[in-house]
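Exam revision sheet. Question 4 asks you to relate a sequence to its structure. Input first:
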Amino acid sequence: MAKTKTTYIRYSAIAPNNKAARTVSSKKTSTGFSLSKVLTFLVVFALFFGIFGAAIKVRASDRAASLAVAEHSLKQKQQLNKELQAVMQANPDITFSISTTNLNSGYSQTFGNDLPMDAASVGKLFTAILFMHEVETGQQSLSENIAGQNAKVVLKQLINQSDDGIWLTLNDRLSHQALTNYAQNLGLSSYNSSTNTVSSQDVATLLQKLYQDKLLSVQHTNTLLSYMQNTNYEQFISPAVPSGVSIYHKVGLINDNVNDAAIITKGDRSCVLVIFSDGHGTQDWDMRAATMQQMARDVISTYFN
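Answer key, structure tokens:
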């Protein structure tokens, strides 16, 4: 009995103390948890508004930068328009169609005539690109013989040396309808293979798609671009291209039509410049070359300086 009583007394003595301890402990835990929540909330609140404020500043900074770029771009466009219009006004006897595309921004402009004109040998670009496209789809082969020569050699002569006989052979092989359909499928609605007419804008779009590897594989694109350097005619746009700037282009000459379609690149910047011109019988190609070079310098100055 004494043992049982002693045990009872100990339990009774300890139990109230433990309860009090648990109550105190519970109060402390509850109070600590509340403070922790408040502190966490304050920290999150501060972080949120700190990040939010920083984001607002970044967006404001980005917007200011975007506005500055847009303003600069607008001034460039206005200046280029002023310069090219001045050159055309100084040569009223010549019909010009000038199309430019900034390949970094994608922005395009057309000055002068916006209707289709005689493409002359610039039209050979459509033939070469379609042939390469059919090589990639298995309809043609670069290893086959065309007019007694390897197809790759034939394509180089078509673009680099502007061989008219090869052009006729390839056009017959591909068909004029296939050429026109190909251009139509690319959205180049002004091109007509049978009359070899096209707008300068559609040629600019063709070159843009070519350079950006949207028409052919990188390998075949690079092959065609290599044919567009050191060509048989280098006296029109080419002399205006400064050292350190690359040009890939195709010249077209027929009657009094003088055309040059070029991709111009410097570092990570690039543009397309297409100049079609009809002298209506003036036949002063030296003056035409000087005029086209002035236009090219204006464009290069706009896009690369």
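Marking note for examiners. Residues 1-32 have pLDDT under 50 and may be disordered.
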